[in-house]
Automatic annotation (TrEMBL):
One term under GO cellular component: ribosome
Protein name: 50S ribosomal protein
GO molecular function, one term: structural constituent of ribosome
Keyword Ribonucleoprotein among UniProt keywords: yes
Gene Ontology biological-process annotations: translation
Cross-referenced InterPro entries: Ribosomal_uL22_sf
Length: 243
């Protein structure tokens, strides 16, 4: 009597449902791992092929500046959402003025709402009636992180994830001729979604053919960014008459 084989895998066995279920489970896991790896590669896009221990990595967990703010006694309500957004803008201004933080690299890392007992107070109603009104007053703890330059370079230049206001301001400056026409070459990786797509396709080809040095270009890009930032601060000081 010839041996029986599993019809799906071709393996020797009884051909029961257990082999089919085990095979489908492994195939499902392979597909899941493939999708996760593909999403991870898309998020990274381009990373250094050979890691240099003397250079900073793509991400830095412990080398960033983090400021924590705590506010107590905040009334929670939909009508006061604008007050909460003002908290973030005030914190950004405080970090910029007191701690010399870069506004372009600041973002809200996390926010925690600590619920507390309500505050009861007497309120005067109509027809000379009095009642007790409860107001929920909680505390909010939020952290603002300054993105390190290596992460900022990976996000802005490599991945092309720029703020929408930044691209709109660049296009408006070119349209109104506030900058020379040669600036288009320098701003090409950031102008529109069309230019960002074709630039990153060319960048991917240069990286695959060994024409793109990640660490060298990152050092030059960071140096150029810092020089532009210092020039912008100096121009603002000159306009205000500050030394």
């Amino acid at each position: 009597m010839p041996e029986s084989r599993t019809p799906t895998t071709g393996r020797r066995g009884s051909g029961s449902w257990w082999h089919l279920r085990f095979h489908n489970t492994r195939r499902w896991r392979r597909k899941l791992i493939f999708r996760l790896n593909r999403a991870r590669y898309r998020r990274q896009f381009i990373v250094p092929k050979v890691k240099d221990p003397e250079e900073a990595g793509v991400k830095s967990k412990d080398s960033a500046n983090v400021w924590e703010f705590t506010i107590d006694g905040l009334p929670i309500g939909l009508k006061r959402l604008k007050l909460y957004t003002k908290l973030f803008s005030d914190a950004q201004k405080k970090i910029y003025e007191q701690y010399n933080g870069d506004p372009s690299r600041l973002y809200v890392q996390n926010m925690i709402i600590n619920y507390k007992p309500p505050m009861k107070q007497i309120k005067y109603h109509a027809l000379r009636n009095f009642g007790i009104m409860s107001t929920w007053r909680n505390s909010i703890v939020y952290r603002i992180r300054e993105m390190p330059m290596n992460e900022f370079y990976q996000k802005i230049f490599i991945l092309g994830r720029i703020p929408k206001s930044m691209g709109a301001e660049m296009r408006a400056a070119l349209y109104e001729k506030r900058v020379p026409a040669q600036t288009v070459t320098e701003w090409y990786p950031y102008l529109t979604a069309h230019t960002r797509f074709f630039f990153r396709r060319q960048l991917k080809w240069m990286n695959d053919t060994g024409q793109f040095n990640y660490y060298k270009h990152r050092r030059d890009w960071i140096e150029q960014y810092n020089s532009n930032l210092r020039r912008k601060i100096q121009e603002a000081r000159d306009e205000r008459g500050m030394v």
